[in-house]
Amino acid sequence: MTIKRPNEEKFIKRLEERSEAFREEIEKAKRFLRYTDGILELSKEASRHVEGVISVERKKERTFQYTPFLKPCSFNTMREYTDFLFESRQDETTSVPWGYVADFKRDADNRLVFLGSLDFPLKRKGVQLLKLPAGHYASWFFRGDMNEHQKLFRKKVSELEKNYVLTDKAFLFDQSSVLLLGNGKVFTTKYEILLIED
Questions:
Q1: Does residue 135 surpass a pLDDT of 90?
Q2: Rounded CA gap, 190 and 142, in Å?
Q3: Could you give the C-alpha distances from 75 to 9, 35, 81, in angstroms and in order?
Q4: Are 158 and 58 in contact (CB under 8 A)?
Q5: What residues pair up with 173 in beta bridges, in sequence order?
Q6: How far is Cα 172 from Cα 190, in angstroms, rounded to an integer?
Q7: What is the spatial distance between Cα 34 and Cα 37, in angstroms, rounded to a whole number?
Q8: Per-residue pLDDT tens for 164-183?
Q9: What is the pLDDT of residues 42-93, one digit of tens each?
Q10: What are phi and psi of 109, to 5 degrees?
Q11: How many CB atoms are located within 10 Å of the residue 63 CB?
Q12: Could you give the CA distance from residue 126 to residue 133 in angstroms, rounded to a whole number?
């Protein structure tokens, strides 16, 4: 009687492939956990603040990785930012929060026009960096329906302009909870605007 033995080379190759697939799943889960933890952290911070209440505080200079969009876009155009997020998750150095830089002073209605995305990791070589200078920043939180955030933003800018001179850029920090949850019902963002000082 002849005992049929498995092809050892094929058997080992299949195990190696399976092990590699498991390793990739583990790394993907780690990155996604970092992403969801970031949403949780920002949401908890937002829950400790009264929604829409403006605070002014001095911040140190901060440097971000900056990825400009191909053209300025409205917040309804999420494709480029979504692509950026998925690309960033492949890099082990990626951390949170993610955010945006937006122009609003050039728009007569003070609507946010998104120019690019911000990310914290600075270890990758050849990336474009953006420095947020030290200074006093007005900030507030928004939690709610994504479609309502522009309306609140315009209201807050009008309030600020009564007492301050504003730069023309707004910085928004979030974890893209709208992408995670698949709808626009839970949208948590921290807004910051640099104030021009005398």
A1: yes
A2: 7
A3: 53, 20, 10
A4: no
A5: 99, 190
A6: 6
A7: 5
A8: 999 989 998 875 555 555 55
A9: 778 777 888 778 999 999 998 887 877 766 655 444 455 555 555 555 554 4
A10: -95, 10
A11: 11
A12: 21
Q: Give the strand pairing for 129-132 and 62-73.
A: antiparallel
The C-alpha angle 152, 157, 158, rounded to 5 degrees, equals 100
Name the strand (E) or helix (H) holding 192.
strand 187-196
The secondary element (H helix, E strand) that includes residue 57 is strand 55-59
> What number is the average pLDDT over the span 15-25?
90
Residues 68-82 have pLDDT tens digits of 776 665 544 445 555
CA distance 73 to 78: 9
* Residue 69 DSSP SS3: strand
- What's the CA gap between 139 and 193, in Å, rounded? 7
3-class secondary-structure state, position 119:
strand
Of how many residues is the chain composed?
198
Using left for φ > 0, alpha for ψ between -120 and 50, and beta otherwise, residue 20 falls in alpha
Residues 6+ apart with CB under 8 A from 63: 122, 129, 130, 131, 132
Q: Determine what percent of the chain is predicted with pLDDT higher than 70.
A: 66
Instruction: Give the Cα separation of 183 and 153 in Å (integer).
Output: 20
Encoded tokens for 29: 């889960």
Cis status, amide bond into 133, omega within 30 of 0: no
Global confidence as pTM: 0.68
